[in-house]
Write a structure and sequence with these properties.
Blueprint (H helix, E strand, L loop, with lengths): L1 H66 L14 E6 L2 E9 L4 E2 L12 H13 L6 H9 L12 H4 L27 H7 L3 E2 L7 E2 L5 H7 L9 H7 L8 H7 L2 H7 L3 E2 L4 E10 L2 E11 L5 E8 L3
Parallel strand pairs: 3-4, 5-6
Antiparallel strand pairs: 1-2, 2-7, 7-8, 8-9
Helix pairs in contact: 2-3, 2-6
């Protein structure tokens, strides 16, 4: 009798325990579902906010073109970052960057996808100035060029097939600079040294002297005025383009100027809008690569979220 009561008691305790576990499980799942739904709703809302900001950036670029299509410098309205704006339940921040202030990785090859040795030399100088290994210039050129025979310090399929897992060289143009991470031996730290100074734009896109970052300018204008001091450069850019094409031409001898005259400009077609949205605890960043053409129509060519 006592034994039976004992078994009944244990059964009751086990049942209560199972019921409790189930209740907790259901409760937790409902809470998680609610949270997940709230998170998704916030992301969805954030996405629309970011697309709105992108459309606004296009307006700003279009107005800028109407003002003067021939000059783009850092004193203009588009270049001023958006201070944090309150939105429903969060905040929006945004900035536009002229991507022609960077070194275009695709310029390491010409339109026929043959390596441009002058560009390789310029990229080597840029890498040196930012404290990265200059050898990436040849490796990157091999990654892009049509040829499958490696440059002196370069790498083609032979190198890539020996990696784990094995893969092949792209032998084509890139649409994102993160492809540099595929180069043999590239580390995250090394890539982060290079990343702020490079872009992936069409072959033939010029470098805007008015917005070029100090190491980029230093790598391009070789043998003339030293533009490597970023603070000095910024101080000179307060109210207009600096250095202008005239200034750069004046600082170089004829041969040096002729070697870069077709590579530089004072205006830009390629910009990137970076929009950071926070709603509640959800947060994300939208990167929009935008092209403004010479008839002032603006289109978003590439969007990515999270990473550039
Ligand atoms: Ca402008
Ligand atoms: Ca190649």
């Amino acid at each position: 009798m006592n034994r039976q009561r004992g078994v009944a008691l244990i059964t009751a305790i086990v049942l209560v325990a199972i019921a409790t576990i189930l209740a907790v499980h259901i409760g937790t799942r409902a809470a998680l579902d609610l949270r997940r739904t709230a998170g998704l709703a916030a992301l969805d809302q954030g996405w629309h906010v970011a697309l709105g900001a992108e459309a606004w950036a296009a307006e700003v670029l279009s107005d800028d073109y109407d003002d003067d299509p021939d000059i783009d410098h850092l004193g203009e309205a588009w270049a001023q970052p958006l201070p944090g704006l309150p939105i429903d339940g969060g905040e929006l921040r945004g900035a536009l960057e002229d991507m022609q202030g960077r070194f275009n990785l695709n310029s390491l090859v010409n339109a026929g996808r043959v390596i441009d040795q002058g560009a390789v030399a310029r990229f080597q100088r840029l890498l040196f100035h930012v404290g990265a290994q200059p050898r990436w210039a040849s490796i990157m050129a091999d990654w892009l060029d049509e040829g499958t025979i490696p440059e002196l310090e370069g790498a083609e399929d032979g190198t890539y097939l020996a990696q784990n897992p094995p893969y092949r060289a792209a032998n084509g143009l890139i649409s994102t600079t993160t492809e540099m991470m595929a180069l043999p031996g590239m580390t995250r730290e090394e890539f982060e040294r290079i990343r702020p100074y490079v872009a992936a734009l069409p072959v033939g896109t010029k470098i805007n002297l008015c917005t070029a970052k100090a190491p980029v300018l230093t790598a391009i204008v070789e043998g003339g005025t030293d533009f490597s001091d970023a603070n000095l450069l910024e101080a000179n850019r307060g109210d207009g383009c600096y250095p202008t094409v005239e200034i750069v031409r004046g600082t170089l001898d004829t041969a040096a100027w002729q070697s870069i005259s077709s590579l530089v400009s004072e205006n830009s077609d390629w910009f990137r809008a970076v929009t950071a949205v926070r709603i509640g605890t959800s947060e994300f960043t939208l990167y929009s690569l935008m092209q403004r053409n010479r008839s002032n129509s603006i289109r978003t060519v590439l969007r990515s979220t999270g990473t550039e």
